[in-house]
Specification:
Length: 296
């Protein structure tokens, strides 16, 4: 049995674990990232974290895999640009490999999470799986035959020409409409809030469940936009499974049932609808997927 360290680098915490070659986590922990610190100091913490976990588990590592947000050069193991952490041209892969004496891989965090869901989660065993995260933005990852297809930034394809402004500088992006942020904006604009005046990703669903037709209209619009974006990807990539993660996906069938119906009308005629499911692993997807990327 071979064992790998998986590291999920986030803006708030760095989650790490020792994972066997089947995707089972033996041991894990989490440390604060300290995003305002120099990248070399964070690197030392990561190395110490992995060494400690390997010692506690009593296994010899065959490799280390990391998942990081931002622009990634996976071939060279470099974080080219990460705005939240302030990292620029950070050769973290070679540094970790040298310090631990094993090969180290680096993937985009959304790609790593997608691989995790294929190995152990909602898309287990699928030959072609598309994983979309509906969070602050829209993250995406595509896995073919157990390997990450790199470069999938589908959140910034345009689904409404000249539509809502996006943080990327374009207008009408998938992310502008289908992220949790997009849904919150639509909910707030409709005047639907919690009792204390706040709005979150559940607000519109709770309001609809309480009989608000206006809230139901927003949900219908949201699932329509989501179906439009997903249909573009399904038509082009032909996945067997589409897994939805992030806070909005926690609505489960409340979201998925109407989405499937809209997708039947959006995808190519004669094309079978892939399984549309909720992701299962939560934060563990990134940890497992990062470790499994070192297995490839």
């Amino acid at each position: 049995m071979k064992y790998y360290a998986g590291i999920d680098i986030g803006g708030t915490n760095i989650k790490a674990g020792i994972v066997d070659e089947t995707g089972k986590i033996l041991i894990e922990d989490s440390i604060p990232t300290g995003a305002d610190r120099p990248q070399d100091i964070v690197l030392k913490d990561i190395i110490a974290q992995v060494k400690g976990l390997a010692e506690k588990s009593g296994v010899a590592l065959s490799g280390v895999g990391m998942g990081s947000p931002g622009m990634i050069d996976s071939e060279r193991g470099i974080v080219i640009y990460n705005n939240n952490l302030g990292w620029r041209n950070f050769a973290i892969g070679p540094a970790v490999s040298e310090a631990l004496g094993v090969p180290a891989t680096l993937e985009n965090d959304a790609d790593a999470a997608a691989l995790g869901e294929v190995v152990s989660g909602c898309a287990k065993g699928a030959k072609r799986a598309l994983i979309i995260t509906l969070g602050t933005g829209v993250g995406s990852g595509f896995v073919i035959d157990g390997r990450i297809f790199r470069g999938c930034e589908f959140g910034h394809m345009v689904i409404v020409r000249g539509g809502r402004p996006c943080t990327c500088g374009r207008k009408g992006c998938f992310e502008s409409y289908c992220s949790a942020t997009g849904l919150i904006n639509m909910t707030r604009e409709a005047g639907i809030t919690e009792a204390d005046g706040t709005v979150n990703g559940r607000t519109v669903f709770d309001a609809a469940d309480n009989g608000s037709s206006k809230a139901q209209d927003i949900i219908d619009d949201y699932t329509g936009y989501l179906a439009c974006g997903l249909a573009n990807l399904i038509n082009g990539l032909l996945p067997e499974v589409v897994g939805l993660g992030g806070g909005i996906a926690k609505q489960g069938e409340r979201l998925l049932a109407p989405l499937r119906e809209k997708l039947k009308e959006e995808i190519y005629k004669g094309l079978s609808l892939p399984r549309i499911v909720s992701c299962e692993l939560g934060y563990k997807a990134g940890l497992i997927g990062a470790a499994m990327s070192a297995r490839q």
